[in-house]
UniProtKB/TrEMBL annotation:
Name used for this protein in its record: tRNA N6-adenosine threonylcarbamoyltransferase
Annotated organism of origin: Variovorax dokdonensis
Predominant localisation class: cytoplasm
Domain of life: Bacteria
Residues in Gcp-like domain copies: 28-311
């Protein structure tokens, strides 16, 4: 079965083609991505109206290039999957509208996918896919959650952020340091030249005894340090970046290890944009190797938003019998949509 996946929840237009064969892990045939980062950079963040308009411009040409690259025709597609939420309403509507229009034109059913389930299952696109069950650390621009994952659709949230997400902490701190949007990768790059012990920054909720996170206070602490440095900020920027990254990474590391301890599971899956962070990967790899825990990540290019993870999540949900694609085409989008509200069985409208 051929699944075309369309992602348009925020500032990346992604399209991909995934093929399923029986119960084997679905295979990625091709994917294409257009990032709007350069367009939004002038504004220091995503401008929703511009995002929607750009998705409209990109989505069909990207679809054509994905088909061309895989050597498949549009009418070979069996199911059209799209991101139903969470995300920006106008941006989501572009992907949903195009997916349903393609579905109607082809006479093929469509399936709305949860964006976070896409991130969560994105490591299955890698050459060495994980096996269930595992602990998942989902660290993206808008979410930070630890989950016990038993199977596709069986997600128990063990802990989550009570305020900012890890990606937000990276981005907001980077902004305070005068780095471009989105700041995470820039801050990480700057941190490589800095001293991570130079500044004492808080590790919020590190010893809270639960698996929740809080990153809002960190941003305030970075602001305080930046103000204190005044004119010296420029020369100490890399030290402050390294100290900020170290604070975020330490909390993510310790809480992930605590989640492994609590569940007794021997496998960790990291997903979402912050999962691309090198320091986080190095520290998780080292700590997990000591404990004989296997760690899985998405390929670097598939950590942030992409169409492959949406096609993959749709394919895996259908394989698991959790959901059937629908030919009703009366679509809606869900800008706010907690992952644990996802139905375990039965098709969503
Ligand atoms: P969500 O999926 O929660 O709706 P999103 O789609 O914006 O949010 P992702 O695309 O998963 O999030 O990830 C984007 C985030 O990842 C941004 O906050 C970005 O700064 C961060 N990020 C990307 N690469 C790195 C890196 N190397 N180090 C730290 N953060 C990074
Ligand atoms: Mg993005
Ligand atoms: Fe995302």
């Amino acid at each position: 079965m051929l699944v075309l996946g369309i992602e348009s929840s925020c500032d990346e237009t992604g399209v991909a083609l995934v093929e399923t064969q029986g119960s084997a892990v679905p295979r990625l045939l091709s994917h294409a991505l257009h990032s709007q980062i350069a367009m939004h950079q002038a504004y220091g963040g995503v401008v929703p109206e511009l995002a929607s308009r750009d998705h409209i411009r990109r989505v069909l040409p990207l679809t054509q290039s994905v088909l061309g690259e895989s050597g498949r025709d549009l009418d070979e597609v069996d199911v059209v999957a799209y991101t139903r939420g969470p995300g920006l309403a106008g941006a989501l509507l572009v992907g949903a509208g195009v997916a349903c229009a393609l579905g109607v034109a082809l006479g093929k059913p469509v399936l709305g996918v949860h964006h976070l389930e896409g991130h969560l299952l994105s490591p299955f696109l890698s050459a060495d896919p994980p096996e269930f069950p595992f602990v998942a650390l989902l660290v993206s621009g808008g979410h930070t959650q630890l989950m016990a994952v038993e199977a596709v659709g069986r997600y128990e949230i063990l802990g989550e952020t009570i305020d900012d997400a890890a990606g937000e902490a990276f981005d907001k701190s980077a902004k305070l340091l005068g780095l471009p949007y989105p700041g995470g990768p820039w801050l990480a790059k700057l941190a490589e030249q800095g001293d991570s012990q130079a500044f004492k920054l808080p590790r919020p909720l590190l010893h809270s005894g639960d698996l929740d996170f809080s990153f809002a206070g960190l941003k305030t602490a970075v602001l305080t340090q930046a103000r204190r440095l005044g004119d010296d900020l420029e020369s100490r920027k890399s030290d402050l970046a390294a100290s900020t990254q170290a604070a975020i990474v330490e909390v993510l590391l310790k809480k992930s290890l605590a989640a492994l301890d609590r569940t007794g599971l021997g496998r960790l899956v990291v997903a979402g944009g912050v999962g691309a962070n090198r320091s986080l990967r190095e520290q998780l790899n080292a700590a997990c190797a000591r404990r004989n825990v296997r760690v899985h990540y998405p390929e670097l290019a598939l950590c942030t938003d992409n169409g492959a993870m949406i096609a993959m999540a749709a394919a895996m949900r259908m394989q698991a019998g959790l959901e059937a694609a629908s030919a009703r085409y009366a679509f809606d989008v869900k800008p706010r949509w907690p992952l644990d509200a996802l139905p375990l069985a039965g098709a969503a409208a």
